[in-house]
Specification:
This protein is mainly alpha-helical and 308 residues long. It contains 14 helices and three strands.
Length: 308
């Protein structure tokens, strides 16, 4: 008689990663306990911390208890999954294990996004790694997918709840990978993209997803777009020693009007730092002979564009 598929997975983890085997076993016990399976409650007690006699007398004290160790993780896992197969069936067990493994494999991306110190280039590398794993987003639990989508929207654009709420169901992780490959930012930068970029990104993904149900939308083409992050603009100002422009908006309007022509020339004669120049060169090569500047979020133009 052939072994069930979940048994093959357990044998593989038993030989390669006993820590993950124990984590999956713990999650299966928790899942069965939530479903009210009595045998799972008994198995859970074998993992629960056990108090020593001296600790039992001071049970009301806030102190950690020693976790009970398992001498035979593999055998314990077999017993747990036997119960799971009886209650859930083979397909039910396989579905849960695949979902939990996918969730663990995607954990590094969520960690990178939640770490405020992670640079945009590091997030791009994490997205590249995520894509290389060929993870099926549909295997991830819904709350994990939403968590990744919300974290990506907040990292690249803004924290506005109305924007995040409306776009999160249309922008999958793959769409952010494509976005990250066309972002121009300083090395180690933490800047974000502006309103035009957010509008273009949101509209493009809404059209893309909606076209599946409405074939009329399939004919709408999205302009090829590169993005400059907010700190790229600030780096240009600092690189050219033009910090005095920060306070220009507080000057009298008459003085602003007098200085404006000079300010325009200063910006036109300014130079870009090396990393920004390299990014802009890549954008021009990608646009080939037809670069334009997008000044609105229109998706109806069959053209290329750059957005800030």
């Amino acid at each position: 008689m052939s072994l069930p598929r979940w048994s093959v997975i357990l044998d593989f983890l038993r030989a390669t990663d006993r820590s993950q085997l124990l984590r999956l076993t713990q999650r299966m016990i928790n899942s069965l306990c939530v479903a009210g399976v009595p045998d799972a409650e008994e198995m859970l007690q074998q993992l629960a911390p056990r108090a020593a006699p001296a600790e039992a007398a001071a049970a009301d004290e806030n102190r950690p208890l020693a976790r009970q160790s398992l001498s035979d993780v593999g055998g314990f896992a077999d017993r747990v999954f036997d119960i799971a197969a009886r209650e859930l069936g083979e397909n039910g067990v396989i579905a849960r294990v695949q979902q939990w493994i996918a969730e663990e494999r995607a954990g590094f991306l969520y960690e990178a996004l939640e770490n405020l110190g992670t640079s945009l280039s590091a997030i791009s590398e994490a997205l590249l790694r995520y894509r290389a794993l060929h993870l099926d987003d549909e295997l991830l639990p819904r709350h994990v997918r939403i968590g990744l989508q919300v974290a990506l929207l907040r990292r690249f654009f803004c924290d506005r709840l109305d924007f995040v709420r409306h776009v999160r169901d249309y922008a999958d992780v793959e769409s952010f990978y494509e976005l990250a490959q066309r972002c121009i930012s300083p090395a180690g930068g933490h800047g974000k993209l502006g309103g035009k970029s957010a509008g273009l990104f949101a509209a493009a993904n809404i059209v893309r997803k909606s076209a599946l149900a409405n074939p009329l939308l399939a004919s709408i083409r999205v302009p090829k777009t590169w993005y400059l992050t907010s700190d790229a603009n600030l780096l240009f100002v600092r690189h050219n020693r033009m910090e005095d422009v920060y306070n220009s908006k507080y000057r009298p309007i008459e003085q602003v009007r007098l200085e404006y022509p000079h300010l325009v020339q200063v910006f036109k004669n300014g130079s870009f730092p090396a990393e920004i120049t390299q990014g802009l060169s890549m954008a021009l090569d990608d646009f080939a002979n037809h670069p334009i500047i997008v000044r609105s979020s229109s998706l109806l133009e069959d053209q290329s564009g750059a957005s800030g």
